[in-house]
Specification:
Length: about 200
């Protein structure tokens, strides 16, 4: 019977991460192999270290946790993924029936909940944090970004740089009408009243 379990943590907030490491340090059966702060480094780290559990934040720079789950889903792996997030599944539009994760814990919960979740997923049982909200989505910039397509995110970034429709169409080799349609979709998905409102949010 295995008595030590290796963990990789994907978390970019130093203060929260320090608390997480201190909480895990009280349990000698949990061995933290590494802490990854950038989403685009997570998959390589998991592949090279082969941990038992990946504790995954969702809002990571460069590559977010949703994108990481999508890649892991297509890989054959024995790793368990425990999501630790300030967001809720309904906001992220994730479901264990379709996405590759084995437990979900809110960052607002006590550390005891996290330890219970780790023990559950390592025993091949799915764990839902009882504090996780299941039916009322929240409004948040990161959540709004998740609703946007890759092209819409590209146009949003150019709008942030001050480019107008014509300049964006030339930069992306699109018609102005296509750019206008994308802008309209961006405004709708982010619930923005006008360009100034959109840019304030992002």
């Amino acid at each position: 019977m295995k008595t030590k379990f290796n963990i990789v943590i994907a978390e970019d907030h130093p203060i929260f991460c320090e608390g997480l490491l201190n909480a895990l340090a009280r349990y000698p059966e949990f061995v933290v192999m590494d802490v990854v702060k950038r989403g685009d480094e997570v998959l390589n780290k998991v592949s090279s270290l082969q941990p038992d559990v990946l504790i995954l934040d969702i809002n990571l720079p460069q590559k977010n946790g949703i994108q990481i789950l999508q890649v892991l889903k297509n890989q054959i792996s024995d790793i368990k993924v425990l999501i630790l997030s300030m967001y809720h599944p309904i906001d992220l539009k994730i479901n264990p029936k379709h996405d590759f994760f084995h437990g979900f814990v809110s960052k607002s919960s006590d550390w005891d909940v996290l330890i219970l979740a780790l023990n559950e997923v390592l025993s091949d049982r799915f764990y839902w944090d009882p504090n996780v909200q299941l039916n009322e989505p929240v409004k948040d910039v990161f959540i709004s970004q998740l609703k946007l397509s890759a092209r819409e995110l590209e146009i949003l970034e150019l709008l942030r740089q001050g480019l107008n429709n014509k300049e964006i169409s030339e930069h992306l080799h699109l018609s102005e009408l296509t750019v206008k349609t994308h802008r309209k979709n961006i405004m709708f998905k982010t619930e923005s009243k006008n360009l100034a409102d959109l840019l304030r949010k992002f």
